[in-house]
Amino acid sequence: MSVGDDQPTALPVFADVDTGVDDAMALVYLLASADADLVGIGATGGNVDVDQVCRNNLGLLELCGAPEIPVSRGADQPLSAAMRTAEDTHGPAGLGYAELPLHHRELTSYDSAEAWVRAAHALPGELIGLVTGPMTNLALAVRDEPNLPSLLRRLVIMGGSFDYRGNTTPVAEWNISVDPEAAAEVFDAWGRAADADAIAPHQLPIVCGLNLTENIALTPKVLSRLATAADTATTAMSVLDARGTRSTADNHVIRALEDAMRFYFEFHFDQGEGYLAHLHDPLAAAVALDPGLIQTRATTVDVELTGTLTRGMTIADWSRRWGRESNAHVGVGVDPEAFFDRFIERVGPFARRLAHS
Ligand code: BDR
Ligand code: CA
After folding, report:
1. pLDDT confidence of residue 9
2. Is cis: bond before 20, omega within 30 of 0?
3. Which intervals hold domain Inosine/uridine-preferring nucleoside hydrolase (predicted)?
């Protein structure tokens, strides 16, 4: 707690994203959280190309009436793999059917890798890193500043899939699959720092894989609760609605989130998963602020780089057959209701306040 008042001390967070519908929800969650100070945003190509990710990040800041938080352009290509994007999942511009406001915000003159290093140097031992896209920028940052693992207070990664199927190949999750070499470099860097006793156990990355994040299934019913918490009238979404039906919410933040989520619901429905959407990245953002939201197990994680069928697969050596030190805390349990309660109690009033400001 801060001295002299009951407000929690805001935790400085640097978020590296490939925005993306659920990345957008994660950023809104951070902006809505009184215990978070979003000190910078890195963009990487992933769900959409990096320039569109930058546009989405800047537009979201405008939508949320945020201060001039630095947004940096990052890698437009993985370290060595060919670039892939996922407009089928997130919409042609990455935010489903949502439209963001016009603005005059600009990108930083330096790139995302440098932004990571600058933020870590400015807040040594305090900064919380969050990655909800491919880890290209972070891998480049560690090449530039090998002490990054010890400079960060905490690192939370949305990526991988542990003892669970993939969502990009049968065994690989999207963020890792786009740039497996980057992910491998990151796990290796933190592992080497742990071997050298340069970091404490709590500085090992907390990894939120699909085995965890697919428990966080947002439904129209939960989205209606969010609108209620924002004090806005809206029309509940239904699987029976015509595709692309636009939100009727009079609150501009809720309207954008509903329009974005509609596309994500439709994608999940087409995948046979029901009229719902998995909030992978918002869970990781919530864990960045409060790791107590999930249960984790320390283990050694590595990334398959060469398998013809398994490239991009994340492997956790639960039984320690590799004889290597732990390099990660893998998320293994979460209470979705606790997450949704927290998400709604933060984002709802935040959206309400913005509409009245
Ligand atoms: C991850 O892939 C992206 O499409 C999402 O934004 C999330 O970060 C889930 O596999
Ligand atoms: Ca993402």
Report:
1. 84
2. yes
3. 13-341
Pocket lining: 47 vs ligand 1, CB cutoff 6 Å: yes
Cα of 3 from ligand 2 centre, angstroms: 36
- Atom number of ligand 1 nearest to Cα 173: 10
Rg of the chain's alpha carbons, rounded to an integer?
Answer: 19
pLDDT for residue 106: 97
Q: Which residues of 233-265 are buried (b: 16+ CB within 10 A; e: fewer)?
A: ebeebeeebeeeeebebebbbbbbbbbbbbbbb
Give the model confidence (pLDDT) of 117-149 as tens digits.
999 999 999 999 999 999 999 999 999 999 999
Ligand 1 neighbourhood includes 266 CB (under 6 angstroms): no
- Mode of pairing for the β-strands spanning 154-158 and 11-17: unpaired
Q: How confident is the model at residue 4 (pLDDT cuts 50, 70, 90)?
A: very low
| DSSP 8-state code for residue 170 | S
H-helix segments, the chain: 21-32, 50-63, 87-90, 112-122, 136-144, 148-151, 174-178, 180-195, 210-213, 220-229, 252-270, 280-289, 336-355
Structural domains of the chain sorted by starting position, each given as residue range(s) with its CATH number in brackets:
11-355 (3.90.245.10)
